[in-house]
Amino acid sequence: MPSTLTIRRPDDWHVHLRDGPMLAACAVHTARQFARAIIMPNLVPPVTKVAEAVAYRDRIRAAVPADLKFEPLMTCYLTDGADPAELTRGKEEGVWVAAKLYPAHATTNSAHGVTSMDRVAKGLEAMEKAGMPLLVHGEVTDPDVDLFDREAVFLDKVLFPLLKRHPGLKIVLEHITTREGVAFVEAHPDRMGGTITPHHLSYNRNAIFKGGIRPHFYCLPIAKREEHRLALRRAATSGNPAFFLGTDTAPHSTDTKECACGCAGIFNAPVAMQVYAQVFAEEGKLDNLEAFASLNGPRFYGLPANEERITLRAATLEAPETVEVPGLSKTITVFRPDTPVDWSF
Ligand code: NCD
Ligand code: ZN
Fold it and tell me: How far, in Å, CA of 18 to CA of 251, rounded?
């Protein structure tokens, strides 16, 4: 096992940075590790207009310390009746990099999400023409479908028809949690990508209930059985260019997770590359970490890979248990797997 690993500086293709005091507390942690990040638009209210995205991008840049080089890549939150002209214009002006599909009520801040694919068809046609990828939260919201089946059902019921209806659309299945999700991306290599989080690679659904209910292991899509985690580990470490890094770091203050109806979302930004390196080392695939973290994403999005390099060290992870949110007098709990992490950044 090497004692250091130097790779091109990675990018994070799925990040929640929030706004206001939370943004001020969190941005530095993503910018320390990653050169660029796809910024999720699920603010309250959501980012649906080009001008809102430009203003949010400015707030993100202002929240990143001046000595860190970091580029926020903005996304449009699709709502019913999404305006094709706004999508096209934002792409032409270099603001939108992609648009995000949240099925209405699927996850945190998705109340304004899409209720039926018919209602975004015109927007998706515009994106097809503009070469703008669609990023998908792949879960159905039907309460009759078991929580643990919602991703697999989404693939059959929603995503497969969507691919047929919009043959030119490039799609990323975000934060894949199932072997069905892996197989679906593998079956459409010419037009699909899939992001995989560090936490879904580290634990299965048992961890959420080990010794009691553990809110800091709760996110959506929820972690599944061990067989699914193993499929994700195989996909991420395989070198297949369709799979790339997306942490889904999703900060909520500790008090809003440790309560009777705790929020979904895991804050992993301070430990992301360390946990990914641990997984690749355990799989004997450290040679493929650079492809997953630094090459496959830019290739999918048609962007150059970063020229800078980072070095990871084989040393026990050092990370704070919590991050302070000045201005809110709150903390955010940092993700830490139950298993050892022997990589440092
Ligand atoms: C995300 C959030 O908190 O914004 N939560 C989560 O559990 N992943 C939303 C999302 O990506 O689903
Ligand atoms: Zn997310």
Answer: 8
pTM higher than 0.85, yes or no? Answer: yes
Domain positions in the chain: 4-333
> What fold does the segment set 4-333 form as a domain?
TIM Barrel (3.20.20)
Within 270-337, where are the H helices? Answer: 272-282, 289-290, 296-301
DSSP assignment of 76-117: EEP-TT--HHHHHHHHHTT-EEEEEE-BTTSSTT-TTSBS-G
Identify which of 100, 248, 249, 257 to mutate to test ligand 1's pocket (most ligand atoms within 8 A of the CB).
248
Per-residue pLDDT of the chain (345 residues; tens, 9 = 90+): 789 999 999 999 999 999 999 999 999 999 999 999 999 999 999 999 999 999 999 999 999 999 999 999 999 999 998 999 999 999 999 999 999 999 999 998 999 999 999 999 999 999 999 999 999 999 999 999 999 999 999 999 999 999 999 999 999 999 999 999 999 999 999 999 999 999 999 999 999 999 999 999 999 999 999 999 999 999 999 999 999 999 999 999 999 999 999 999 999 999 999 999 999 999 999 999 999 999 999 999 999 999 999 999 999 999 999 999 998 999 999 999 999 999 998
Q: Ligand 1: list residues with CB < 6 Å.
A: 16, 42, 107-109, 137, 219-220, 248, 250, 264-265
Element (H, E) at 183: helix 179-187
Q: How many CA atoms lie within 13 A of 142 on its CB side?
A: 13
- Nearest atom within ligand 1 for CA of residue 16: 4
Ligand 1 atom with the shortest distance to the CA of 252: 3
